[in-house]
Specification:
The complex is a heterodimer of chains A (271) and B (332). Chain A contains eleven helices and no strands. Chain A is mainly α. Chain A has one domain. In chain A, helix 3 runs antiparallel to helix 4. Chain A is elongated. Chain B folds into two domains: 218 residues, P-loop containing nucleotide triphosphate hydrolases (Rossmann fold, 3-Layer(aba) Sandwich), CATH 3.40.50.300; 69 residues, Alpha-Beta Plaits. In chain B, strand 9 and strand 10 form a beta hairpin. The longest helix of chain B is centred in the middle third of the chain and has 16 residues. The radius of gyration of chain B is 23 Å and the shape is elongated. The chains are: A mainly alpha (271), B alpha/beta (332). Chains A and B meet through helix 1, helix 2 and helix 5 of A and strand 1 and helix 3 of B.
Chain lengths: 271, 332
């Protein structure tokens, strides 16, 4: 038997390469396949790129007229909110994608390969972040076209993007858990949206919290998506935003610290 | 050829906190360079065994050695030496055939030029060159299975696990896949194949293990299993089911195994076909029973299975647990 093991010559691998580099290669291989899927599934393309544009146009030209924001033009108020909302919605794709892979048996194949164990989850979240970068650039462009004029510096604009991407990345790990725990992708979606919708709409994303009923305001002011929005908006517009940046970063780390281990545990058990 | 490629000792795997025993003490020894068949109906534990051997699932107890390495203690040594394909191990629908193979090759930690060359070679071997740059969503069932098998082969594994490789395929695609598998074995690959098709096991496997409800109930070559049964199956047709039933006691002592009645037909398995046929016909004639049809044939593995388990291999709705359903939510 041992003879067989030594005799079974393996094809040329770059075995001299350290395990860590292979792990990085695995994450990139998985991320690449996930990104290719986005480009090739028209539905995914619409949800990823067209939907946030629709939101921009809807709120800028349809609802925008009735919203009054003290101290800002509505379009300047709106675009940082939409950017935050779009990247957060994007993280739901992590749940849907993983759930589909599990359902279709791809995860089964991956588990029998000598690849790094964590690459399936990490590759997925990395791909979702890459897609979010494209969404950020796209919506920034669309924003400029509809009159968005950020009054902060380029440096604070980039900081805002980093805060947003970090938050969405960490949320992706949370949704990775949802995707692995759900029985199928439809269920994953059904679980994700009731979580994400109230958090996005009862927030400072589209309208000032002060315009909401009194009982809703404490929630709307303090929940994580509002904090992320305050930080992003403050940074982009060069306005005071208190401790929101740090609170948002703290939320991000908190979410990933709690949910990533759950997702990994679930991944080990699933299959 | 005396090398052992896969060896298991008393593998037990339970699901749902021990409620379901998918495998209940299975010991196998698979010689290198041969086709080893795991035969059994749905729920007999075949897929669970393949998943344990391919390091996807841990056994509850027992030991499994694949290519010389313990699947639990050294799965990282096992994985580069195995390929897995079949019913469930699938391809990425959104990638082209070539991209699928390249992805699996890269995840096998092989160098890129090798992966690219090998992928092209496999696509050619499996008659997929024309479809290489098409998204696999557009592939037919047979093409998908071939690509799936190709993906299992990118790493040139010495040991291949095929879990019901032809389930759900049309006869022609099945033939094509069989030919491919035979060629692989000629090239020295060890194949462990699960199937519920007795014809498939008969055609491909050198050595067979029959599983039923997580236990081995028979083992040997296809010829040995058939020999346990007797040499010839006599199949009588009757005009009515009553006639078939009343013929049973008349013929009971001619066969070592019980007669099998299905509707108008009655089957017995016997050692000496021609002599016993004459005897049987005489007895039926004396009792005034005239068969409307008579066939003599070699026993199939289906007959073997029936004799061993009391139920046919194709019976899907077995009473008791169906561990395949318990292993995961495979909603398709």
């Amino acid at each position: 038997m041992t003879d067989l093991a030594t005799r079974t010559a393996l094809p040329p691998s770059e075995s001299s390469r350290p395990a860590l580099l292979w792990a990085v290669s695995d994450v990139l291989t998985i991320a690449r396949r996930n990104l290719m899927a986005i480009v090739r599934i028209p539905v995914a393309l619409v949800f990823t790129f067209i939907q946030p544009i629709m939101f921009v146009l809807l709120f800028r030209y349809v609802f925008g007229g009735v919203v009054h924001v003290p101290g800002n033009s509505y379009v300047n108020y709106l675009i940082p909110g939409i950017l935050t909302q779009a990247t957060i919605f994007g993280s739901v794709n992590t749940a849907i994608g993983l759930s589909e892979d599990l359902q279709k048996g791809l995860i089964e194949r991956f588990r029998a390969l000598p690849m790094a164990r964590m690459a399936v989850l990490a590759g997925r979240t990395v791909a979702d972040t890459a897609r979010n970068v494209v969404v950020l650039i796209l919506i920034t462009g669309v924003g400029f076209a509809v009159g968005f004029r950020p009054t902060g510096s380029v440096w604070t604009y980039l900081q805002a993007c980093l805060v947003m991407l970090l938050f969405a990345y960490c949320l992706s790990w949370g949704f990775a858990f949802v995707g692995l725990a759900a029985p199928n992708s439809e269920a994953a979606q059904a679980i994700a949206f009731p979580i994400i919708f109230p958090l996005t709409f009862a927030s400072a994303v589209f309208v000032p919290v002060a315009s909401m009923p009194g009982w809703l305001q404490p929630f709307a002011n303090n929940q994580p998506i509002s904090q992320a929005t305050f930080a992003v908006r403050g940074l982009m517009l060069g306005q005071a935003h208190g401790a929101s940046t740090w609170i948002s970063v703290a939320w991000s780390i908190g979410i990933v610290a709690v949910l990533a281990p759950l997702a990994v545990a679930r991944y080990r058990r699933a299959a | 050829m005396s090398d052992v490629a896969v060896e298991t000792h008393d593998i037990v795997r339970t699901f749902r906190d021990g409620e379901v025993r998918a495998l209940d003490g299975v010991s196998l020894s698979v010689p290198a360079g041969r086709v080893f068949g795991l035969l059994g109906p749905n729920g007999s534990g075949k897929t669970t065994m393949v998943r344990i051997l391919s390091t996807i699932l841990r056994p509850t107890s027992g030991r499994a050695i694949v290519a010389g390495y313990d699947v639990v203690k050294q799965p990282e040594k096992v994985r580069p030496r195995i390929g897995l394909a079949g019913q469930y191990a699938t391809v990425d629908e959104n990638l082209t055939g070539f991209e699928n193979l390249r992805m699996v090759g890269m995840l096998n930690h092989l160098n890129k030029p090798y992966v690219v060359a090998k992928s092209r070679q496999l696509l050619e071997d499996f008659d997929l060159t024309d479809a290489a740059n098409r998204i696999t969503k557009t592939y037919s069932g047979g093409m998908r299975r071939r690509l799936d098998l190709a993906a299992a082969l990118v790493g040139a594994p010495p040991i291949l696990f095929l879990d019901e490789p032809t389930t759900g395929l049309d006869p022609q695609s099945r033939q094509e896949l069989w030919t491919i598998i035979e060629r692989l074995v000629e090239g020295g690959t060890t194949v462990l194949l699960t199937t519920q098709y007795l014809e498939e096991a008969d055609r491909l496997a050198h050595h067979l293990v029959v599983l039923d409800r997580g236990r081995i109930i028979a083992e040997g070559t296809s010829a040995q299993l058939k020999a346990q049964m007797g040499a010839t199956v006599l199949e009588f047709g009757f005009a009515t089911t009553d006639a078939a039933a009343s013929a049973v006691p008349l013929l009971a002592d001619l066969s070592a195994t019980p007669a099998n009645v299905e509707g108008h037909n009655l089957e017995i398995t016997v050692d000496d076909g021609p002599a016993i046929t004459a005897d049987a016909l005489r007895r039926l004639d004396e009792a005034g029973l005239r068969p409307t049809g008579l066939t003599l044939r070699e026993p199939s593995l289906d007959d073997v299975f029936l004799a061993l388990t009391g139920h046919r291999a194709e019976d899907e709705a077995l009473d008791g647990a169906a561990p395949v359903a318990a292993t995961r939510r495979r909603s398709r």
